[in-house]
Input
Amino acid sequence: MHVTYLLGAKGNLLYDGKHEMAGRFQTYGQHSFIVDLVGAMTDAGHKVCLVTDDLDGFPLTRVMGRAENVTVTDEVPAVTDLILVDEASDRMLERFPRHVPAVRFVHHAGRRPSDYMVERCRWLVCMTENALDRQATMVPADRLVLIRQGVDLARFSPPRERTAGRGSRPRVLVHCRMDSGRERVLNSVMEHLDREELLVYAVGDGPGFWELSDRFGDELILINHVPCLSVPNLLAEMDVVISLGRGAMEAMATGIPTICAGYGYAGVVNEENIGPLLTYNLTGAYCERDPRRVMEDVHSALAADRRGVRRLAEEHLSIGVFADRVFDLVAPGTAR
Output
């Protein structure tokens, strides 16, 4: 199948970057979704054409252009069997023949799509129960479907035991943008991490990141940019990750015990709480565990079975399963 992945990058904060440098900072979560989904589709034998309105400004243009069975362009491809709409404008979709089926991904739970998008797209794919519930107040229910997103389980290193000789201090990575309401929880986490017992890395951006630099810069290892294709290399060196959303998913796929912290604090992700946490995309929203207990959770995470963490990711966080379900919506039996 020839799949067109339609992406509006021009003037779109989701892909231009939250602060500076045309997306070269921590917008990796959205970029990672694209990389993983396109990879899953090509692995299944499909040809993918990524169509964007800003070839020069979109950070993944060169990366995706090197991938096998992927082309990147700003033109309408000659052959299209399915259009996947990701943060694209009405005008971009209007360029395609109406008989070609279109599926839209809902990245913002509370954002109403245009009337044209609702009419043109057969399905709007919500990735959380929260998004499904909120979209149902704005969009006809027969246009909505819930398919939880996932990560590329092959792109991340398999779980491995911590080995001797890596230093006496466990490595803890705090991986998150420090803006948009996450600052309170993450500041509390950083304040209560024992920075003498642990070797703490902080990766992110946003105003809160620079405040961390001012407050704790001599006690942390601060990293302001990690290309999304390099995230597996970073994760492979960590003993515990504190993150949310795709950052948490990617850590779990690598088999790293993960503490969910962002809009709220949930503690260690485990078999009992992963289902409820996925309702809000592993963001910690509405979780009320006290972030001052972070060292207690770090010690629990250090004692956790990394193989069990990986199994949770395999059961709940597979981009391959996501891609298969998307294809089954429009062409049952063509997923793989």
